[in-house]
């Protein structure tokens, strides 16, 4: 598409590690296909530690695919992904890159947390246990410590009184706030947010976004966010990447992208969603 | 008509106890097989899936009675070790009903939303932890109604052991028929005994199901309305997919 | 493990007879199960309590008690009441009756699965009861349940060796008789076991294929 005439494959402006952060996520020439459909085309991009980056673009442009590749829910066809310097699904052996084992991948992946569109809470566990389960059984935290952390996080998301509820007894907005707490309980360096308000009734969206704004402004966690909430994106983002047809066609500060987009496709897209 | 004396009643009651034991042991073995094979069939290595699938096809394809004969008559000759009739029976019933059960386990595991597994990946659970903490607890309540049907089939299947001379209810009945020369009373009585056992099993499984569903925050199932509903010992599963409840297939 | 092919050869004539008897019992048993099951299913939908109740009680009872004991009941009790059948006939009746209580459930589910709009359309056209059932509901219901019925035929096949216990010389019965005459058990029982797998596996594959085609 129009990306041909544009330096879409170039790393974006924040590529060079800035003073406040090292490079936390790096995609090198990543290609992902579903059958004949190339969803990501030779994609390069990086995210510096502590930054909040929002991916926007028409549906099918590959935004969610990026998050799912980072979480290893999908496999990269070509190229590599590095998290905090470590290859996610590869290992260096004798100077060569070889596919890494499950154990290596899991270690690297522990630095990443994810919040899903459909919450994906575990219906067989009460709220508190949903949050405690992974810290106890993956990180090896003591029960008491994990519980204390879980309660603090529940307070943070405004659900301190719903510890003993089952997920099915909560509204969608409450479930999503629990899911945010669950992801944070693993103390990830990066939080992936995959259209976290798309499955919510309109009146519940604000509560979830408020929690995320709060987290964005009070912690130094890195965020990689796919959303259709443009106001939210403007509020929290350091950088906005505009995707189209598997490439980044434009990137920059939210002010620049939302107020003065350079690319025709970006203008079209924004006028359609704003 | 010669009366059923107390001694003959005792014969039937001790037979009932043997039937209960057989059912419990075979169900325990069957459950181990069902979970082992059922989970193996969802394994990521094709060879594991193939071998477990082969097991299921062979043991579902064979007749429990023929398998029992084989274990009882051929195994000792062929391999030189003689199983007690009771254990040959438990082995035959457990292995074949376990094969049916594996299909129940596989189906219920496959029915858990893939998003749940993804959430497990996102929290860095190992595959084994995902299975144990997330998938199985959610699949378990779905397994109970078909397991109930299988359990009743298993109970009915235990009657086969009487042919091998194991002293269960049906064996007691044939002794009594020989002793009294009367068939109608004793066969009516033991059919009723089997029915009562099946009824008790079903009630028990309903309780288990209620607990399991409450354990994942779901509403309890309605426990059949009215007397006719209570009498219905089988749970409806899918419209035509009720294959696992049959004595065979 | 010793395996004697000459024993296999000796067993073959009896085995062939046994296969024929098994298939005969299976065919006749299936016909009874299909017909009687439909009767039970329709009776359970009757508006008369006096019909619905006894049929439900009877089918639940038969379905939840062992076929083996039912065979003994038919074989030993019926003659006491002055009704005498051959062993094979008794076996066929037992198999058919037992499995009719399963097929009744299959029909019932199939009938329940016909969309309500079909009943309403039949009513809107003022079709008489017999046409509603015969031309609208049952054809749709039965198409959907053919694979499930087939699965019960396979199940019946695997229960059929039980009729050997009342003296029918089907496959297992022939094997037992051969064993008691020659004191050779290994070959006949193994052959019978393999024969069941060889018949049952393709049959259940067929049913799965039918299920994909018919249940849409």
UniProtKB/TrEMBL annotation, chain A:
Protein name, entry field: Ectoine/hydroxyectoine ABC transporter ATP-binding protein EhuA
A GO term for molecular function: ATP binding
Positions of the region Disordered? 1-22
Source organism per entry reads Streptomyces lycii
Q: Does the keyword Acyltransferase apply?
A: no
Superkingdom per UniProt: Bacteria
Q: Where in the cell is it found?
A: Cell membrane
Residue ranges, compositional bias (Polar residues): 1-18
Arranged from A to Z, the UniProt key words for this protein are: Amino-acid transport, ATP-binding, Cell membrane, Membrane, Nucleotide-binding, Transport
Q: Which InterPro entries match?
A: AAA+_ATPase (IPR003593), ABC_ATPase_HisP-typ (IPR030679), ABC_transporter-like_ATP-bd (IPR003439), ABC_transporter-like_CS (IPR017871), Ectoine_EhuA (IPR014343), MetN_ABC_transporter-like (IPR050086), P-loop_NTPase (IPR027417)
Instruction: Determine if Nucleotide-binding is one of this entry's keywords.
Output: yes
* Membrane topology term: Peripheral membrane protein
UniProtKB/TrEMBL annotation, chain B:
Membrane topology term: Multi-pass membrane protein
Question: Main site of residence?
Answer: membrane
SUPFAM superfamilies (UniProt xref):
MetI-like (SSF161098)
Domain ABC transmembrane type-1 per the UniProt entry, residue ranges: 16-201
Q: Which residues cross the membrane?
A: 20-40, 52-73, 182-201
Keywords in alphabetical order, please. Amino-acid transport, Cell membrane, Membrane, Transmembrane, Transmembrane helix, Transport
Q: Does the keyword Translocase apply?
A: no
Query: Which compartment or compartments is the protein found in?
Result: Cell membrane
Stated family: Belongs to the binding-protein-dependent transport system permease family.
The protein in question is named Ectoine/hydroxyectoine ABC transporter permease subunit EhuC
Which taxonomic lineage is given here? Bacteria, Bacillati, Actinomycetota, Actinomycetes, Kitasatosporales
Automatic annotation (TrEMBL), chain C:
From which residue to which does the signal peptide run? Answer: none
Gene3D superfamilies the UniProt entry points to: MetI-like
- Keyword S-adenosyl-L-methionine assigned to the entry: answer is no
Keyword Metal-binding on this protein?
Answer: no
Pfam hit, one: BPD_transp_1
Q: Where are the transmembrane segments?
A: 20-43, 189-210
Q: How does it sit in the membrane?
A: Multi-pass membrane protein
Main localization (coarse)? membrane
Q: Please give the superkingdom of this protein's source.
A: Bacteria
- InterPro entries reported for this sequence: AA_ABC_transptr_permease_3TM, ArtM/GltK/GlnP/TcyL/YhdX-like, Ectoine_EhuD, MetI-like, MetI-like_sf
Alphabetical keyword list: Amino-acid transport, Cell membrane, Membrane, Transmembrane, Transmembrane helix, Transport
Q: Where in the cell is it found?
A: Cell membrane
Indicate the segments forming the ABC transmembrane type-1 domain, all copies: 15-207
Q: Which family does it belong to?
A: Belongs to the binding-protein-dependent transport system permease family.
Which named protein is this? Ectoine/hydroxyectoine ABC transporter permease subunit EhuD
Q: Which species is this record about? A: Streptomyces lycii
Q: Which gene encodes it?
A: ehuD
């Amino acid at each position: 598409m129009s990306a041909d005439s544009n330096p879409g494959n170039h790393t974006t402006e924040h590529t060079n590690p800035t003073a406040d952060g090292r490079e936390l996520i790096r995609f090198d020439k990543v290609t992902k296909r579903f059958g004949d459909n190339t969803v990501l085309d030779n994609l390069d991009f990086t995210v510096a530690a502590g930054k909040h980056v929002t991916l926007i673009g028409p549906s099918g442009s590959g935004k969610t695919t990026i998050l799912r590749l980072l979480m290893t829910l999908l496999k990269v066809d070509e190229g590599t992904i590095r998290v905090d310097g470590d290859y996610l699904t590869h290992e260096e052996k004798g100077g060569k890159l070889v596919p890494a084992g499950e154990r290596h991948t899991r270690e690297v992946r522990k630095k990443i947390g994810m919040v899903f569109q459909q919450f994906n809470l575990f219906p067989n566990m009460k709220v508190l246990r949903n949050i405690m389960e992974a810290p106890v059984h993956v990180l090896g935290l003591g029960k008491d410590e994990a519980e204390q952390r879980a309660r603090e996080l529940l307070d943070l998301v405004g659900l301190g009184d719903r510890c003993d509820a089952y997920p099915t007894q909560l509204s969608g907005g409450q479930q999503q706030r629990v899911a945010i707490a669950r992801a944070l309980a693993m103390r990830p360096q990066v939080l992936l947010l995959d259209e976290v308000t798309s499955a919510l009734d309109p009146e519940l969206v604000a509560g979830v976004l408020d929690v995320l704004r709060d987290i964005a402004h009070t912690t130094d966690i890195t965020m990689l966010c796919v959303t259709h909430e443009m106001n939210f994106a403007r509020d929290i983002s350091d950088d906005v990447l505009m995707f189209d047809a598997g490439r980044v066609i434009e990137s920059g500060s939210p002010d620049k992208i939302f107020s003065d987009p350079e690319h025709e496709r970006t203008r079209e897209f924004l006028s359609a969603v704003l | 008509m010669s009366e059923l004396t107390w001694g003959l009643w005792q014969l039937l009651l001790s037979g009932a106890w043997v039937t209960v034991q057989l059912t419990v042991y075979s169900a325990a073995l069957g459950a181990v097989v069902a979970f082992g094979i059922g989970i193996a069939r969802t394994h990521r290595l094709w060879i594991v899936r193939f071998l477990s699938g082969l097991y299921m096809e062979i043991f579902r394809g064979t007749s429990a009675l023929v398998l029992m004969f084989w274990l009882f008559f051929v195994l000792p000759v062929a391999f030189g070790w003689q199983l007690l009739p009771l254990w040959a029976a438990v082995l035959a019933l457990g292995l074949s009903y376990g094969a049916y059960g594996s299909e129940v386990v596989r189906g219920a595991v496959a029915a858990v939303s893939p998003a749940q597994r993804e959430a497990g990946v996102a929290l860095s659970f190992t595959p084994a932890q995902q299975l144990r903490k997330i998938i199985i607890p959610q699949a378990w309540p779905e397994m109970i109604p078909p397991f109930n049907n299988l359990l009743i089939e298993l109970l009915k299947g235990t009657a086969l052991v009487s042919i091998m001379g194991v002293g269960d209810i049906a064996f007691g009945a044939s002794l009594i028929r020989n002793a009294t020369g009367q068939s109608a009373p004793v066969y009516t009585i033991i059919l009723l005994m089997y029915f009562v056992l099946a009824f008790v099993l079903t009630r028990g499984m309903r309780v288990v199901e209620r607990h399991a569903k409450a354990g994942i925050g779901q509403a309890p199932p309605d426990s059949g309305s009215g007397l006719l509903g209570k009498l219905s010992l089988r749970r409806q599963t899918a419209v035509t997919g009720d294959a696992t409840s049959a004595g065979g297939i | 493990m010793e395996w004697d092919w000459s024993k296999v050869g000796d067993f073959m004539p009896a085995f062939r007879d046994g296969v024929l008897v098994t298939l005969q019992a299976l065919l006749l048993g299936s016909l009874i199960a299909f017909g009687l099951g439909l009767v039970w299913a329709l009776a359970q939908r009757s508006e008369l309590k006096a019909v619905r109740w006894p049929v439900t009680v009877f089918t639940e009872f038969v379905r939840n008690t062992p076929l083996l004991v039912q065979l003994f009941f038919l074989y030993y009790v019926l003659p006491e009441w002055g009704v005498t059948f051959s062993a094979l006939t008794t076996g066929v009746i037992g198999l058919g009756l037992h499995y009719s209580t399963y097929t009744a459930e299959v029909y019932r589910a199939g009938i329940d699965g016909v969309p309500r709009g079909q009943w309403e359309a039949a009513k809107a056209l003022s079709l008489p009861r017999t046409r509603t059932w015969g031309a609208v509901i049952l054809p749709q219901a039965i198409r959907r349940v053919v694979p499930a019925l087939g699965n019960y035929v396979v199940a019946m096949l695997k229960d059929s060796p039980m009729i050997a216990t009342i003296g029918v010389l089907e496959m297992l019965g022939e094997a037992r008789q051969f064993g008691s005459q020659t004191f050779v058990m290994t070959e006949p029982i193994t052959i019978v076991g393999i024969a069941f797998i060889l018949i049952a596996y393709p049959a259940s594959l067929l049913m799965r294929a039918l299920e994909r085609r018919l249940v849409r």
